[in-house]
């Protein structure tokens, strides 16, 4: 019985169906299609929401990284590395070599 019903829903073995049976099958197919479309739309909307949240998180992370980069840049500009002048010319003794 189920096999016959499934075949009819899939479009097979419709030759022996009455008009009323065909209309019933059509309505069942429409209902099934509406259910499938609703489920698909729900999944798409969930994915959109997930991606929007991911975008928001990445935007926030990017803003924090930009702030950090600027802070490091400003720190380097305000505290440049101290370069020691050359202690002595070649051949001269430096305090480091005295015992």
UniProtKB/TrEMBL annotation:
Coiled-coil ranges from the UniProt annotation: 41-68
For this UniProt record, give its keywords in alphabetical order, as a comma-separated list: Coiled coil
Tell me, what's a Pfam family for it? K-box
Q: Where are the annotated segments for Disordered?
A: 77-99
Top-level taxon of origin: Eukaryota
Q: Name one GO molecular function term.
A: DNA-binding transcription factor activity
Cellular component per GO?
nucleus
Q: What are the residue boundaries of the K-box domain, all occurrences included?
A: 1-77
Instruction: Note the InterPro entries from the entry.
Output: TF_Kbox
Q: What is this protein called?
A: K-box domain-containing protein
Provide the species name. Answer: Erythranthe guttata
């Amino acid at each position: 019985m189920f096999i016959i019903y499934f075949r009819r829903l899939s479009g097979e073995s419709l030759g022996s169906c009455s008009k009323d049976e065909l209309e019933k099958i059509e309505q069942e197919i429409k209902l099934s299609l509406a259910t499938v479309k609703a489920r698909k739309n729900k999944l798409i909307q969930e994915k959109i929401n997930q991606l929007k949240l991911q975008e928001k998180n990445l935007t926030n992370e990017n803003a924090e990284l930009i702030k950090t980069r600027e802070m490091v840049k400003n720190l380097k500009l305000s505290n440049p590395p101290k370069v020691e002048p050359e202690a002595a010319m070649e051949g001269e003794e430096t305090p480091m070599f005295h015992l």
